[in-house]
Amino acid sequence: MLAIAMASAFFTAINSGIIKWKEVSCCLKISVLNCLKNNLSTEQLLSSLFCIVVFYALFLVYFDLKPTEKETIESKFRARRRAFLALIVVVLISLILAILAGVMYYNLGTSSDVMIKYAQGLGITSMILVLIQWAPQIFTTFRNKSAGSLSVLMLLMQLPGSLLVMYFQAILNAADFTTWMPYLFQFIQQVILVVMCAIFHFKDWRESRKGMPALGFRDGFISFFKFKKDQGKPLHHDEAERLLDDESPGSELGSRKKYDPPLEDEDFEKLPIFSKIKKKVSDGFVTIRL
User: Closest by alpha carbon to 14, among 127, 165, 104, 120?
Assistant: First the structure.
């Protein structure tokens, strides 16, 4: 997924560089400050590409090589090798395309139809790569009815970024549609993922609260965002009382009841385990395991 995102960013950057080459070439005649100001649109796309390359490099450096029940250390090494080869392939293809664009420029000029079609072809390829990048994640999320390991917070941070890049390129910069359309496709698919994750999370949360007392707006809001699907169903107050009456030797309260005389109400509330259960039951969304 990250390799496809990097390829898409490379192609979009080359697309913008070809279409905006006149502004880029003016940097040889004007000051650095004016050059940076005149090429904000291209710099914006290059900064996105730079971040993706850094993420990919960190992914390779901190690749988890610890063996698991399903994967051996050899399979982990092979996976990292494939990821490294994917990086090399994407970089080489992008360099070849950039060099080809330079050769075409010196022979045909940026205003030729061939150069424009070439740039638009790279932009359309970038759109297709964006669709390929997010489609499997959308399908997996829909099939599993859960976000899984997908970071919803990351999506929420990327959403306004994609929208702002699209707005700047399309409205303020009047860029070619093939330059900003990949970000539109990315924005739409990210919205789909966020909405799906929110719906599935709400269904799981509502299912977990069946038979529970109604919560106010504030408590319900906190409960919804702190709920985790794998934590189990929240406890009823009756269930908490049943746990408090547990006389198994492994529980703190059970040991006290078995060997100590009966406790008064005030002493009972001072027990650490009672305080923990009381707090967790009042929160209404945490499963208690003794």
Answer: 120
Around Cβ 178, how many Cβ atoms within 10 Å?
22
CA angle 163-169-175, nearest 5°? 145
Torsion sign across C-alpha atoms 22, 19, 119, 2: positive
* Pairwise pLDDT comparison (89 vs 31), residue with the higher score: 89
Contact between 219 and 284 under an 8 Å Cβ cutoff? The reply is: yes
**How far is CA 18 from its chain centroid?**
31
**In whole angstroms, what is the distance from residue 288 CA to residue 279 CA?**
10
Give the number of other CB atoms < 10 A from CB of residue 185.
21
Q: What number of other Cβ atoms are within 10 A of residue 259's Cβ? A: 8
CA–CA separation, 16 vs 46, rounded Å?
Answer: 10
Cα-based angle 279, 282, 284 (whole degrees, multiple of 5): 115
pLDDT, tens only, 49-102: 999 999 899 988 888 888 777 788 888 888 889 999 999 999 999 999 999 988
